[in-house]
Amino acid sequence: MTEMFTGEWGLFLSAFISSTIAPGGSEAVLAYMVSQGHYSVNYLLALAVIGNTLGAMTTWWLGSLAAKKYPIASLLPEKKQKALHTVKEKGLWILFFSWLPVVGDAFCFAGGWLKLPLIPACLIILLGKLSRYAVVVWAFL
After folding, report:
1. How confident is the model at residue 51 (pLDDT cuts 50, 70, 90)?
2. Contact 98, 108 (CB under 8 A)
3. What are the φ/ψ torsions at residue 102 (nearest 5 degrees)?
4. Alpha carbon 74 to chain centroid distance?
5. DSSP secondary structure of 3-50
6. Do residues 47 and 26 lie in contact, with contact meaning Cβ atoms separated by under 8 Å?
7. How many domains, in total, are found in the chain?
8. Fewest C-beta in 10 Å: which of 3, 81, 86, 105?
9. Please, are residues 132 and 96 in contact by the beta-carbon 8 Å criterion?
């Protein structure tokens, strides 16, 4: 059981936390696990993508909640105001880049704030996360 928590669950939790407002290094965890060869690569990729997407959607949900409590965008910190403007300007597809360090979390928050459609937002975020983690897996095979 301990091995499963530090292995599979460790990867999932690392990916989830890395995609919320807390920093993390899920790419390093995934790369290590792929290089060890103890698990199916597709399984590891799925764990990382699902965990990271759920973390991003948590940030999206927090943005949605914040918009209800503080409907005036000027109350947001400068970083989130800039992300809000970018998401307004670029639209739903900017969420593909939610995997980017620093700004990715802000894009997800802004998407929730702007009440972008949930299912398309989730699918676009998932596609971006899958693309990023697929590159990590490919590099460490």
Report:
1. very high
2. yes
3. 70, -65
4. 25
5. HHIIIIIHHHHHHHHHTTTS---HHHHHHHHHHHTSS-HHHHHHHHHH
6. no
7. 1
8. 3
9. no
